[in-house]
Amino acid sequence: MRPRQTAFLFDLDGTLVDSVYQHVLAWHEALEAESIPLSVWRIHRKIGMSGGLFTNMLLRETGLELDAERAERLQRLHAESYGRRSAEIRPLPGARALLDYLTEAGIPWAIATSGRIATAKRTLDTLGVDPDRVPVITRDLVKYAKPDPDLFLAAADRLGVAIEDSCVVGDSVWDMLAAQRARALGVGLLSGGYGEAELERAGAYRVYEDPAAMLRHIDEVGGRR
């Protein structure tokens, strides 16, 4: 019987690159431009979910009515503000080394992000990932983003692996919830600002500080050569 090969499906922001707070501030700036008051910490708690759910959250948190035109304008303002901050973004400690290890070991991996390609492209460039050579699933390619499982299911399909043999690596509760719904194992990282207990409650079976810590313990999550 052939051994089952573990695959790794990575979130992007806060998991491989240190960009969560740039996204938070970009959303805050976009909301301020539309005269929508919302505390920065409340925005942070929703980073990683789909844009549609983010809009629903705005309705609950502010009691405002958002028509399609205003929602689209917010998305554009966020993308522009994030673009101005993109030069600040760096890979998280150990991110490149972790991806290099998996590649050299012949262990399949892909990236699945709730961001659209317009914002994700700059981040991927910072990380040194070429979407023409590495499977990258963005919000543009699926019907629903996290906490729905579509992104990770599409990433596993692109790799040609079973989702049940995959580990979803993410920094938010939305990643872990999506992993559970996809029937994959979830590995949480603290590098996006969520706490260990929060990630474990959402389904993470291992939690590490950042990609460097995960690489040091790669044997615990099925990453043997």
From TrEMBL:
This is Beta-phosphoglucomutase. InterPro entries: HAD-like_sf, HAD-like_SPP, HAD-SF_hydro_IA, HAD_sf, PGP-like_dom2. The keyword Glycosyltransferase does not apply. It comes from Rhodoplanes serenus. PANTHER family: FRUCTOSE-1-PHOSPHATE PHOSPHATASE, GLYCEROL-1-PHOSPHATE PHOSPHOHYDROLASE 1-RELATED. GO terms for molecular function: sugar-phosphatase activity. It holds the Pfam family Hydrolase. Keywords: Hydrolase. The keyword Cell cycle does not apply.
